[in-house]
Design a protein that fits this description.
With about 220 residues, this protein is of the alpha/beta class. Helix content is about 25%, strand content about 30%. It is globular. Bound molecules: cytidine-5'-monophosphate. Cytidine-5'-monophosphate binds next to helix 3 and strand 9.
């Protein structure tokens, strides 16, 4: 039984990878399974929140009581999130959003030409969903924005810097870069006072701890 620390709150979460098309049957994606984001969605729902999950392609079932919008590309995720942001109390960006999309996708399957040159892909930068949502935070502090960071080294240094760069009150760093697809994780929470390590545990356990840490911080800001 989980205490209903987010009762009456609306929570928007992104999860999973994005898929950036090259042509109608090919694309560029990453190894995010969506497990951490789905665990956060489930934990927020258990805590009494109304949860909307904007998900890239995953094979995971929708957590009970959670509303889900499926998207593929980063731009589709951006549109779905920006359309849903008004009225949200909390935004948690867990998705592994592609930094770049293919600028020149083909609307037909690209054919292999005997002896021909391979296709040339050009890339363009995708919008930063988290930073854009964070920039909409009102004077009253909503939505309270939480980001995730997967750094392979110098997590403590990069984590603190990334939190400031994104303009968010709370950033969750994954310790090590072997979290993708795993059932366990260990995380570090960075806020304006410093950092706290949550040791290795199943993603659902960490997600429940994260939800109570978010609720604690909202209470401190007298937002709850
Ligand atoms: O900058 P970086 O990709 O390392 O930041 C990771 C955090 O930013 C995650 O919370 C991720 O969901 C979010 N993000 C985003 N849109 C992007 C890139 C990252 O929302 N285009």
């Amino acid at each position: 039984f989980q205490p209903k620390v987010l009762a009456g709150k609306r929570v928007l979460i992104t999860a999973g990878p994005t898929f950036e098309p090259i042509d109608p049957v090919r694309g560029i994606t990453n190894l995010s399974s969506g497990k951490m984001g789905y665990a956060v969605a489930r934990a927020a729902r258990e805590a009494g929140a109304e949860v909307l999950l904007v998900s890239g392609p995953t094979t995971l079932p929708t957590p009970h009581g959670v509303r889900r919008i499926d998207v593929q590309s980063a731009r589709q995720m951006y549109e779905a999130v920006m359309g849903a942001v008004p009225g949200q109390h909390i935004f948690v960006g867990v998705a592994a959003v592609a930094d770049w999309r293919v600028a020149n996708p083909s609307d037909q399957k690209v054919k292999k030409q005997e002896g021909g040159a391979p296709p040339q892909l050009r890339f363009e930068q995708n919008p930063d969903i988290l930073a854009t949502v964070a920039a909409t935070t009102s004077l009253s502090g909503w939505p309270y924005c939480v980001g995730f960071a997967a750094e392979s080294e110098n997590l403590l240094e990069f984590g603190a810097a990334k939190r400031e760069k994104k303009g968010i009150p709370l950033l969750v760093g994954n310790i090590g870069h072997h979290t993708f697809g795993q059932d366990d994780n260990s995380i570090v929470l960075f806020d304006e006072t410093g950092h706290t390590v949550l040791p290795r545990a199943p993603k659902l356990v960490l997600a429940r701890q994260l939800v109570s840490e978010i609720a604690k911080r909202l209470e401190q800001r007298s937002l709850l």
